[in-house]
Amino acid sequence: MWHSSFMERITATRYGQVRGQIRDGVASFLGIPYAAAPTGTRRLAAPEPPEPWTGVRDAIAYGPTPPKPAYPAPFDTILPEPDIPGDDWLNLNIWAPEDLSGHRPVIVWIYGGAFANGNCAIPVYDGHAFARDGVVFVAFNYRLGAEGFALLPDAPANRGLLDQIAALEWVRDNISAFGGNPANVTIAGESAGAMSAITLLTMPAAAGLFSKVIAQSGSVQAAAEPADAALVTAELGLALGSELRENDVSAAGIAELGTDTLIKAQVAVRDALAAEPDAARFGATIVASSMAFIPVLDGEVLPMHPLAAIASGTGAQVPLLIGTNADEFRFFLVPPGTIDTISADLLGFLGAAIGATGEVIARYQGNRPGAPAGDVFAAMLTDKFFRLPALAVADARSGGQAPTYFYEFRWGVPPMGAGHAMEIPFVFDNLASPGTGPLIGPDPPADLAADMHAAWIAFARDGDPGWPAFDASHQVRVFDAGGGSVEIDPRHDERTVWPAG
Fold first, then answer.
1. Under 8 Å CB-to-CB from 60, ≥6 apart: which residues?
2. What is the phi-psi region of residue 178: left when phi exceeds 0, alpha when psi lies from -120 to 50, beta otherwise?
3. What is the pLDDT, as a whole number, of residue 6?
4. Which one of 48, 103, 133, 324 is most buried, counting C-beta atoms within 10 A?
């Protein structure tokens, strides 16, 4: 139902007209379907175009969100996610300057959530500030967990990635109606969204759908070998047990189950992997990613490991902005209190489990004299799972056709520090967004948000965020209170002490 108290703006997509609303010079269009509802025979199939509609479709409220589990405590309160019921959850939101006649740069946002959580209705992903500053901003939903990424014998692999491609195709075909330039599209994402963006950079089906990439706190961590993905599918079948008719772990068998039943089994697999990350049980590539349902190297949709593809020159013509936060893993260790349970005696065992030799551990301890063992382990985990993979991507592209720009976000609030996801409200210049308080505290620096937000806009506009491109000397733009600076190969000794491979 349209409420006449709002100023309206109507524009036409290929599937029908949509009515948005205007606030402070920004037009927003919410909940527009970019693909048909993934239900019935479409549930575990490749996405199909949406059904056209007649008349004017209201686009003034967020659309339905993808089925997903709750985050485990205490992250369910730190990462609040709206749940909006409905089947048409392959939808997207657009924020654009009020005048839709322009030809402006476009940013398309891919949310994080370990490929199992997240949606584009989360308040911090409001793109008002980007549109205020001259960018057309798009955020979309995609299928998650088993629905999006379980490898099934009678369904296309990587359905969640196929959804992402469908959303980008919709942007290509429709964004000019919102004042956007389809030839100047930047895909951007955080965590699993950043892993998706790097993966899309290497996918043949995504070629030409974007011209630049931004990857925040995610790179090449998620790519499963088919045999490993099959082990996860078998675990899913065991978790479903008698719910499956004749143990039919297939799209046909799963399609008979309710969404809640599938999600409950998905959570059981997730929790089993977290409790016992056994490569013999789940597969080495699944254990390495710490996520059960991730993109699969199926040979077609995703023909090659993203890092290998980048090293071979794939995506070399696309500028890349990539980086991490200084204390990524504190986000995962501090809230549940795990960081305080790590003793000095345990540090060697835990370090060995992630490939840290005695020399690695000694180097990190030596650089943090007197630090508790948990803090040392958090720093090693941050580098192992975030910083080093991002640097591997940047190094693989160094000296290539298009520039790579590297950043590190260092501002944070104790005890979390510059933990995972901390940079998002700053990138969006959305520090007052509901739900950000547990991450950024009561008084975050507005000048840091303005600085980071402007850099992202500059990169989306012309491919240059305003600092030197990454090369063999490892220039890194540091974002911190007071403006930050460009540093040459920060923590070189820690980067290079890790064993190769």
1. 2, 3, 6, 19, 20, 21, 28, 30
2. alpha
3. 66
4. 324
Strand (E) or helix (H) holding 266: helix 259-275
pLDDT tens readout for residues 199-227 = 999 999 999 999 999 999 999 999 999 99
Name the residue among 429, 471, 458 with its Cα closest to residue 26.
429
Burial state string for 242-275 with b = 16 or more CB within 10 A and e = fewer than 16: ebbeeebbbbebbbebeeeebbebbbbbbebbee
Domains of the chain: 7-216 (3.40.50.1820), 226-289 (no CATH), 329-497 (no CATH)
Which residue matches tokens 């895909």?
Answer: 187
| Active centre residues (catalytic) | 191, 328, 420
pLDDT band at 2 (very low <50, low <70, confident <90, very high): very low
Q: How many CA atoms lie within 13 A of 308 on its CB side?
A: 8
10 Å CB burial of residue 443 (0-12, 13-18, 19+) is exposed
State both tokens at 231. Answer: 């082990």
Strands 56-58 and 91-97: unpaired
Is the distance from CB of 265 to CB of 236 less than 8 angstroms?
yes
User: Looking at the chain, how many residues does it have?
Assistant: 501
* In contact, 78 and 439? CB cutoff 8 Å: yes
Alpha helices in 335-445 (DSSP H): 344-353, 358-366, 373-382, 388-397, 424-427, 437-440
User: In 10 A of CB 39, how many CB atoms?
Assistant: 12
Q: How many CB atoms lie within 10 A of CB 172?
A: 17
Predicted confidence (pLDDT) per residue in 341-383, tens digit: 999 999 999 999 999 999 999 999 999 999 999 999 999 999 9
Contact partners, residue 193, CB within 8 Å, separation at least 6: 109, 110, 111, 112, 118, 216, 218
Q: Mean pLDDT in the chain?
A: 96
- Categorise residue 246: left if φ over 0, alpha if ψ from -120 to 50, beta otherwise: left
Task: Return the percentage of the chain with pLDDT > 90, whole number.
Answer: 93
Q: Is 276 exposed, middle or buried (0-12, 13-18, 19+ CB in 10 A)?
A: exposed
Element (H, E) at 494: helix 492-497
Written as one string, the DSSP assignment of 8-67 is EEEEEETTEEEEEEEETTEEEEEEEESS----GGGTTS---PPPP-SSEEE--S------
Look at the block and give the residue holding tokens 């143990």: 247
pLDDT of 450 higher than 50: yes
Structure confidence at residue 1 (pLDDT): 36
Cα radius of gyration rounded to whole Å, the chain? 22
Question: Does the pTM of the predicted model rise above 0.85?
Answer: yes
